[in-house]
Amino acid sequence: MTVSQDNSATTFEGQKILLVDDDTSLLKLLSIRLRSFGLTVETVESAAEALAKLPTFQPHLVLTDLRMSEMDGLALYEQIHQQSLTLPVIIMTAHGTIKEAVEATSLGVFGFITKPINHAELTQKIQQALTVHKPVMATEKQAKWRHNIIGQSQVMEALLQDLYHVAQSDISVYIQGESGTGKELIAQAIHAASPRHKKPFIAVNCSAIPEDLLESELFGHKRGAFSGAVENRKGLFELADGGVLFLDEIGDMSPAFQVKLLRALQENEIRPVGADKTVSIDVRVVSASHKDLKQLVEEKAFRLDLYYRLNIVTLKLPTLRQRPEDIPLLASHFISQQRGKAKKLSNDAMELLLGYDWPGNIRELKNVIEQVCTFATASLIPASLIEKALQQENLTMVSLQEAKSNFERDYLIRVLKLVGGNVSHAARIAQRNRTEFYRLLDRHQLKPSEFKQKSE
């Protein structure tokens, strides 16, 4: 294989590159050359080996051949892109054509180089890739933006690497993750790492707000817009102006309101309820859901145009069972937050935590730790307390009736807050007559007068 020489003094001290090619002689030649620039180099002879190497080596750049057996360079790129959005990939080929180059770059491949390799061109491409996709260095890893995120697993480090790069732009981000994985913490980290960090971060759970109230909650309302609207009120979009608005559980939003949200995002303006003029907004939207939005789109339950507007970049949160090495850190953190005698877990207790499946993820782990710390009588938490808490976790799902009752109470409180305790208007929103509505309030021991005082 012919390789041209270059006397470039370029150095890439401390940065890592993964070379992928089934030509062992080229791998050896390239690795020698790139190590002379200060790069840490790992070589593999297949795409499968590359994918296996990624989690442990964590390169800052991948340089791969296009033509390989079983899985080619483009297929490898697609697999890498699913794991790490911002890891740059440069593809080499002896069969370079304009068509292949266009296909590669349109998919997001950083660069495309033909063989025989011109080292000046390759060095330039590498320099560009490592400049544009600057890795998060140690000082940034200790920065305030990530202080609330506990964990050192490779899967979380890869996620935070992507998060930091995404945060520097102003694009919309969609966070996919099971309940209890910490979607709001990730949204807060995006805000904290972004140029908007000095502006507000506002979070709202779309599933917790009745549809009748969602428009007023997000867009605000004018005095007199409805009974109980005794003064102008800014919505969450206005309150978040200049900053970040986090829309959690976006998948639960009704199709009717999706249209209004799409219009606000497209036009960068909102119209408060009862207003005759629009209000300009400057808000970065981060959304999240435990549901699969793509599936909801296919089921016609979520608008495709809104999906593309919100989902410019997706960050997929790992479940707790996918990052077991973080369980000891998380458990110790939660123990430190509790008052009482408990200070640490016994080895047997930790083994139980590591062997559990954690369907409720980090939220469930926190709940278990709170339980055992409450009953611990010594500094060392025994396995028996953990075992008992885990058994209770499996048995203490509330009944359907209790879940309905909890939801009903929360709904009534939100309605009364919105209308300032005006029972007539609250009953109309709930689509109940006054007598029935008063009966609901009595059931939950709620007094409208208390909400009137709070609104004033």
TrEMBL record:
Keywords of the record: ATP-binding, Nucleotide-binding, Phosphoprotein, Transcription, Transcription regulation, Two-component regulatory system
Domain Sigma-54 factor interaction, chain residue ranges per copy: 149-374
Keyword hit for Transmembrane: no
Pfam family, one: Response_reg
InterPro entries: AAA+_ATPase, AAA_lid_NorR, CheY-like_superfamily, Homeodomain-like_sf, P-loop_NTPase, Sig_transdc_resp-reg_receiver, Sigma_54_int, Sigma_54_int_dom_ATP-bd_1
Annotated ranges, domain Response regulatory: 16-130
SUPFAM superfamilies recorded: CheY-like, Homeodomain-like, P-loop containing nucleoside triphosphate hydrolases
Modified positions (4-aspartylphosphate) in chain numbering: D65
Domain of life: Bacteria
Molecular-function GO terms, alphabetical: ATP binding
A Gene Ontology biological process term: phosphorelay signal transduction system
Name of the protein in its database record: Transcriptional regulatory protein GlrR
Provenance organism: Hydrogenovibrio crunogenus
